[in-house]
Fold this protein.
Amino acid sequence: MKRTSRPKGLFLAVVAIAVAVSAACSAPGSSSSATTVKIGVANAQQGFWQVFQRKAKDQGIDVQLVNFTDYNQPNPALSQNQLQLNEFQHMQYLANYNVRNHDTLRPIGATAVYPLPLYSRKHRSVAEVPAGGQIAIPNDPTNQARALLVLQAAKLITLKGGGNALSTPNDIDTAASKVTVVPVDAAQTAANLPSVDGAVTNNDYATPAGLGPNDTIFTDDPNSAASKPYINVFVARDQDKNNPTYLKLVQIYHDPEVEAAAKKDLGATTVFKNNDAADLQATTAALEDTIRKTVG
């Protein structure tokens, strides 16, 4: 039988098309191959993450959650390439971390901002808190400062000079304050409620502890300009801040089904935010400059 030869140019064209099709079939977002993204979180047990993972899988992204119980761990893990993203912190916390660790982690998308409530299981209002009472607050620098500002707004303490996002218990004017503060690990603020008059507790720990509106005796305003540094964010390494897959995950977080599930888990006071990456990065940079000037 006579063998028919194939023109060399046509053969190469067919090979090129085959390679292109193969690459397209294995690209992120295709149904045949998923891109794996490890995200560090502090509340992996909450159901909304399952909705998020399902929505991401539909977009060809296999999200693996890595849970941390210590706020000090997710940023170093991200910086050391153990994670691709994390989502547990607000910009004030991130700025403080970057300055103190000479790091360049960047926010790439907003999730939500939460009011920071003062809870009590002993009193129904701030007015009932007795003089000399004790209030538990988180002991990590940024949440501690915000908690002190909350207590000052509630007129339970007075901060020298009016206080700021870097205030510490050493800045409390004890003579002019009604209560004393007890700094503890953020995860232990709610657990201390039986032995103190109140506790300023982060949302990540308040919800699992069953704390809600009936236990709240004061809160700050999550929509105020003063609350902007406390918008929670997805964070990536600087070189990954424009990664399209990671930016797609930010969009997926704001899918209506994900937001509805998150609000159910995180509480009705959750305020979702859609600030773009450029705005978040500019805000974080400004916070970092302020911290550098303060700490010298």
